[in-house]
């Protein structure tokens, strides 16, 4: 018995390291492909690819931020789209007041999102499980209806931006290529930040709480302050996604923060594999590509979409990332 | 209470679930550096008592004083910070963490702020060295980089104690640490507890009578949530109610040799 367990030890050690490294490699590969994508559009002359890729990266950013709390904190927030909405409306409302600078808009977006996360998170974290899902959903819907009632910014109809935000007074983002690389840079930055957070002292407490909250209390941690901090960070990053989304489509609407949007973000994270950071990026890509593809076949695409999601969740432990890993692993062993 | 000089004083503690009284007016005084064993039949309320002392469960009445401070209403994590830690009868580890990480995070809890977001904690030498030293005390060094979930049952029981020890607490509440361990593992744990008596105050719940009588300074017997006897091993062993309610006569007869062999106080 003793000798057999000794033999297993290096394999398990390797497994821990490999999964951490594979996630890193997967992200690196995805970023490399994305960075090279504009070359492809140069060849094909089809700019639509760029537009879709930018959209994917924006939702990947939002999904990545959700993974911080969902995948690493086991906090199932059903109101994450609210933060995307805050970011988008920061752009619209500041635009209405003549403030068009991207950095100023981003700062305001992050500040408001952080404050909203702090207040709603502090209240939501007093509950657990299903109640946490319900209360975050309620806060999200509250904001959704608030924006619908704000007729100064289009209410239900939304608000059309006259132009994209400026950077130091220059209309740089009007160029789709600059827009693309700006979004890519923010996504890569957020990924690196999230990876660092997860590996830090703070991240260890967060991961520990996800695994066993009672154990964490029994060694002297009160989980809530750490979870709340993660909630605020995740909300802030999602607000940046909202700033970028508003800029890409030059339009802002309450629909960005509807509960369906929050649900879609959860689907992206689960689809890609929770708690992997790289997974949600792949999940966002899979989600948006499937959406584009299926909607070109029929208007009942959502039915097929639902079925595919169900199959992935049922048959692939760890989402798309887990599926790829198992296919690769299977090839190795076979 | 503080006058008794006890590190832990429990007064009239109770716990009920509806009409069911699980902890019935329990009072205990545990002086510093005492190893106090609580025995009692299955379902007597031993684990519940540990839950109440550690703050895992609220009490319906009574008072818990630790180091002169009323901690009756403190949450578990604050009791740990004050030096009162526990282990679990049903192993509760971070299964996805390595053995080393399970211990290192307990060291981390008492070593400065955990609101540090940048440096990778896995390479924190100070935390790892301290954690490794604790693992070494339990002979678990070669398991350091194995995930806790993949350890054998006995190794998990040992790791459970390592984590409690790593909190740096001066008093440990150990709930059946020997349950399910192999003969060798249990020997390591018994020797560890014997050594811990020099530096720590312990409440130990244990069914293994050889271990109980060789380690205990004092024993309390819990039956239906009530302490029916409390005192030095010899006294408890001779207690007629204990013999009737809990110790089979056979065990009671065996006990003197075990106590002598263990060299208990
Ligand atoms: N949540 C609960 N609701 C109702 N009764 C409970 C609850 N938890 C425990 N009990 C009861 O309390 C009594 C004491 O349980 P406890 O686990 O404290 O016993 P124990 O002495 O630790 O037993 P063992 O030696 O088997 O570990 C048992 O009768 C149990 O059924
Ligand atoms: Mg028990």
Automatic annotation (TrEMBL), chain A:
It comes from the Bacteria. Coiled coil: none annotated. Its main location: membrane. It holds the Pfam family BPD_transp_2. The keyword Transmembrane helix applies. It is found in: Cell membrane. InterPro entries: ABC_transp_permease, LivM-like. It is a multi-pass membrane protein. Keywords: Cell membrane, Membrane, Transmembrane, Transmembrane helix. The chain crosses the membrane at residues 20-41, 47-66, 78-97, 103-123, 130-153, 178-198, 228-246, 266-290, 302-324. This is Branched-chain amino acid transport system permease protein. The lineage of its organism: Bacteria, Pseudomonadati, Pseudomonadota, Alphaproteobacteria, Hyphomicrobiales.
From TrEMBL, chain B:
SUPFAM superfamilies: P-loop containing nucleoside triphosphate hydrolases (SSF52540). Residues 8-249 form the ABC transporter domain. It holds the Pfam family ABC_tran. It comes from the Bacteria. GO terms for molecular function: ATP binding. Keywords: ATP-binding, Nucleotide-binding, Transport. This is Branched-chain amino acid transport system ATP-binding protein. It comes from Pseudochelatococcus lubricantis.
């Amino acid at each position: 018995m003793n000798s057999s367990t000794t033999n297993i030890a290096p394999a398990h050690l390797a497994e821990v390291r490999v999964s951490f490294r594979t996630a890193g490699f997967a992200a690196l590969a995805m970023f490399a492909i994305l960075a090279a994508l504009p070359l492809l559009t140069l060849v094909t002359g089809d700019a639509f690819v760029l537009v879709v890729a930018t959209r994917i990266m924006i939702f990947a950013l939002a999904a990545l931020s959700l993974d911080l709390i969902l995948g690493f904190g086991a906090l199932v927030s059903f109101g994450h789209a609210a933060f995307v909405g805050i970011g988008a409306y920061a752009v619209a409302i500041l635009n209405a007041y003549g403030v068009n600078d991207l950095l100023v808009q981003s700062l305001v977006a992050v500040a408001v999102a952080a404050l909203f996360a702090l207040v709603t998170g502090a209240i939501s974290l007093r509950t657990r499980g299903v109640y946490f899902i319900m209360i975050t959903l309620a806060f999200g819907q509250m904001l959704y209806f608030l924006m619908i009632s704000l007729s100064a910014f289009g209410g239900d109809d939304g608000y059309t931006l006259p132009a994209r935000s400026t950077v130091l007074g220059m209309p740089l983002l009007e160029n789709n290529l600059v827009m693309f690389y700006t979004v890519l840079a923010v996504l890569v930055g957020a990924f690196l930040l999230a990876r660092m957070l997860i590996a830090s002292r703070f991240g260890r407490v967060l991961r520990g709480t996800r695994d066993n909250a009672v154990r964490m209390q029994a060694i002297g941690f009160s989980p809530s302050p750490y979870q709340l901090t993660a909630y605020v960070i995740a909300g802030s990053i999602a607000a940046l996604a909202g700033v970028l989304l508003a800029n890409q489509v030059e339009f802002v609407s309450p629909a960005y923060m509807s509960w369906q949007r929050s649900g879609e973000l959860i689907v992206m994270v689960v689809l890609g594999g929770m708690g992997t950071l790289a997974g949600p990026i792949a999940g966002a890509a899979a989600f948006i590509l499937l959406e584009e593809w299926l909607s070109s076949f029929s208007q009942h695409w959502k039915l097929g979409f639902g079925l595919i999601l169900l199959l992935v969740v049922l048959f692939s432990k760890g989402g798309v990332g887990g599926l790829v890993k198992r296919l690769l692993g299977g090839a190795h062993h076979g | 209470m503080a006058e008794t000089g006890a590190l832990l004083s429990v007064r009239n503690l109770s716990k009920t679930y509806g009409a069911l009284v699980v902890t019935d007016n329990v009072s205990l005084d545990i002086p510093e550096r005492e190893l106090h064993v609580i025995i009692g039949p299955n379902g007597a309320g031993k684990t519940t008592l540990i839950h109440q002392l550690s703050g895992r469960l609220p009490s319906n009445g009574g008072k818990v004083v630790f180091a002169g401070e009323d901690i009756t209403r403190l949450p578990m994590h604050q009791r740990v910070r004050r030096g009162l830690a526990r282990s679990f009868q049903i192993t509760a580890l971070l299964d996805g963490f390595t053995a080393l990480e399970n211990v290192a995070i307990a060291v981390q809890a008492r070593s400065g702020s955990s609101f540090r977001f940048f440096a990778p904690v896995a390479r924190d030498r100070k935390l790892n060295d301290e954690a490794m030293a604790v693992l070494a005390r339990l002979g678990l060094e070669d398991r350091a980089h194995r995930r806790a979930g993949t350890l054998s049952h006995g190794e998990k029981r040992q790791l459970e104690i390592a984590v409690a020890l790593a909190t740096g607490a001066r008093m440990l509440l150990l709930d059946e640490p020997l349950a399910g361990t192999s003969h060798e593992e249990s020997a390591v744990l018994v020797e560890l507890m014997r050594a811990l008596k020099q530096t720590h105050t312990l409440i130990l719940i244990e069914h293994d009578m050889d271990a109980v009588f060789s380690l205990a300074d004092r024993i309390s017997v819990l039956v239906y949530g009530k302490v029916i006897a409390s005192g030095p091993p010899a006294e408890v062993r001779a207690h007629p109610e204990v013999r009737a309610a809990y110790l089979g006569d056979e065990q009671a007869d065996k006990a003197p040799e075990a106590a002598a062999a263990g060299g208990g106080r």
